[in-house]
Amino acid sequence: MKFYKDQPGVWCLNRGWKFKETDCKDLPCGIRHDDIYDYTKAGGAKGPAELSFDDSDWKPVSLPHDWVTGKSFDAQASPNHGYKKRGTGWYRLKFRLSEEDRNQQILLEFEGLSSKAFIYINGTLCKRQFYGYNSFCVDITDMVCFAPAVNLLAVRIEADAWEGWWYEGAGIYRNVWMVKKSPVHIAYQGVYVKPEQQADGTWKLDVETEVENSFGQEREMKLEAALYLDGNKKQELPCVSGTVPGYERIRYHQSIIVKQADIWNTENPVLYEVRSVCSVTNGEQAAGPNEITSPDTSFESQDYLNTRFGFRTIRLDADTGFWLNGENMKLRGFCCHQDHAGTGVAVPYALKEYRIRRLKKLGANAYRCAHNPDPEILDICDRLGMLVMEENRTFSSDEDTLAQVRGIIRNARNHPSVILYSIFNEEPLQGTLRGGRMAGRLRRAVHEMDSTRPVLGAFNGGYLEEEGAALSLDAVGINYNPMRYDEFHRKFPNIPLVGSETASAYMVRGEYENDEERHKIASYDESCAPWGDTHRDAWRWIMERQFVAGGFIWTGFDYRGEPTPFEWPSVATFFGTYDSCGFPKEACYLYQAFWTNEPMVHLAAPWGQGSMPGEPVKVLIISNCQEVEITVNGRLVQRKPADRYQPELIHVPYESGNLKAVGFRDGKPVAEHTLTAARKAYALRIETSGTQLRGDGLDALVVNVCAVDEEGNVVSDADQTVSFEISGGAELIGTGNGDPNSHEPDTAPYRKLFHGYAQAVIRNCGLDTVYIRVTAEGLKEDSVSLPVRRIPHIPYVEEAKDTVVEGWRMYHQLLDRRPDTLFSADVNDRNSFEPIEFHGRPQSEFTGKLNKFGVYQTRLSLTENHGNRYLYFPDIKGQVWVYLNDEQAAERVLQTLGAMKVEIPAAFGKTGICTVVIRNQNTENREAGICAPVILSEDNGLTPEE
């Protein structure tokens, strides 16, 4: 779980959703006056946005969720999007808020939806979000109801257009959170921690905090903060106090000098915390008309927020490149799209961490969020010591885009991993006057929020134009075209340069011959896109130029869509250094040689994969050692000096046995790698990314499976279908094998081995021990059990399963006697019957009016009658008569309190009018009325939720 979510008042909304892919509108079914009149009012949205909408045939889902993974591949769909169609879908979640929440600010945070989203709460459209990659927050404080009432959160997602030319998925594909805060509180993303190193080596720590008042009454507050390291308080910041007017935000500053700080860097990423507390004494203030005073006048409401950050310095120099904490280093980076095999774009936190750890293993120190921000990636990179280029998706200077960019900066600016902001990628206007002006305005918007990091754009041209965007930015990123690095530096010697996107080399894991007909590309680093370079050439251009700050390789992992240089039946890209599962291609070992100093040697060759004795086998020798010795079955083939940036390609006559490489430094053997001709596949072997799962409902695990011979060697030509059986406290999310031409279903519990490997991703869903079993025809099965670790309770918003009857109206005046003939308002009359909701108390107009009659009415819309149906009144006071379409269905003659259950006869059909007449006979407290939401239930042996 993300650090900043593991705090009081934060609830997870990932469970209990209903989903359906449908283009159903939020419009009323009819066009009468009452239909249109009601629709135009607050809370008037219909269809799936309405609480009483029938979603009984919708699919239960948990988040994150990408509905495209469940679809079949379609040759008529877009190749860029992996030959899968998207469309429009709806999500619905019903939940309750307690009475204690009445005085809280209630926020919903969506980390990512694809693509256009419309957020409804209780029938009110409260947010339109047209940026599918950005996280955002919705304040629903004014729109929610409190127990016993039920709230409906409905989300319509339109994914029929494109924001990118790659697989984007569709759905609520990241987490959703509910945040409950005190009336006066620290605003959402309202803390900015800014450490600045002084000339004497000390640090000035400035903390800027926005305090918000969500209600109408002015409040006095005090703001306290302290600096912590590993849970230990180091220093207190000065306490500040002030007055916060109703519905306003006030910004406060607190500063201290830190004499000695542990530095965050890529090898030892030390993270500090600023713990902030905003305190308000509620009892001293008069309550507003919609607020409840605490009976304890000494009670102080407090809002807490812990902000993680690091002490570090960065500098981008036009001559010497990038500097971290005074140390000059190359940015050794990868560009990464966000999808993974089996899961689509709905990638759990643990899987994101798994991917970044695999990049770190190659010696990478930088990660480009291509081409969109992800808040969880920043948290992971903070902890693991990975530098980040945070990238905005949409290039424009309109108000909506500027607001989205400001949101990106608010989310990123406390993360020490973030060192660069990229405001665009490969924009046609990048070299024009229009592009220059837009870039300048975006840069200013960024620096208004955070002036400590350079702003660049990722150019694929136009960077030499003086009226273009290059001169409006702090630095320039060049995509490909490394032969123009020198030309740019000569023309603009004062502008720092980054290789923002490089290589675009092709490779398929396990393939060592090109086969255009079968869409196979060999693994010798000899193929690349027309605009790109091989891995070794791309990195050589960067290493030979000190003024180039570093480079970001395209890409870290294969991703769905964009199957260049092929189209159908290829459905994924060939660019990755790893495949889509994170299984290493031969390119991984190239970067290990380029970027690491730990001795390594690796042979890239299909040794024993169908070669005949004496047939030459093509071998690429990859090493960062000084010399490499090659032997076959102990017989020397050669021993030569090695160049880590230019690996040698040789041909070795095949013979059964071992091909071995030994790397030497200073004449001593320091690394070795052996290729053994594997025998027939004998068994399956499981390897998991962890030894346990956290019992939080969020944790995930990678289950890798390979086929091995009797000696345990991986059989690279094994292609059997593996079945995955998952039981206990985990569920299967998806499967994959890294084959860019595979059309197997992502969510199926089986997958063919591709060059000996396949993968499943599982997610925690309980506390029982997890059992994993894999089988394949003709192979010995394997199994493993993993414990689920109990952790402190993770608060989830629980689904309210009741079907609530909405649309109640009450006749505008009380009657002296029970009406002999039932009446209802004409469709053009929206005044005789007043709209009413039931929130745990009787109607005030009934109080004290003994022997008066009140009339309530609503229109029922029912599903098909599959059994006995009932109207359940959890709390109804007074003498009661219930009518369905003018026919009396129930009567409670005696004055009683509590629940009432009314059977709906089959003859009622699917729609009709329900009328309730109540007489106030309560002589004790003189109250009457419908006091709680009315529930529609079926006779299933269960009592409706109280």
Briefly characterize the structure:
With 946 residues, this protein is mainly beta. Helix content is 9%, strand content 37%. The longest helix has 17 residues.
Structure in words:
The chain is mainly β. The protein has six domains: 3-181, Jelly Rolls, CATH 2.60.120; 193-309, Sandwich (Immunoglobulin-like), CATH 2.60.40.10; 328-576, TIM Barrel, CATH 3.20.20; 601-675, Immunoglobulins (Immunoglobulin-like); 683-789, Immunoglobulins (Immunoglobulin-like), CATH 2.60.40.10; 803-938, Jelly Rolls. It has an eight-stranded parallel β-barrel, surrounded by four helices. The protein has a six-stranded antiparallel sheet with strand order 3-2-4-9-6-7, with no helix packed on it. A six-stranded antiparallel sheet has the order 49-48-50-56-53-54, with no helix packed on it. Strand 53 (879-884) and strand 54 (887-892) form a beta hairpin. Helix 4 (399-412) packs across helix 5 (433-449). The longest helix has 17 residues, at 433-449. The two termini are 32 Å apart.
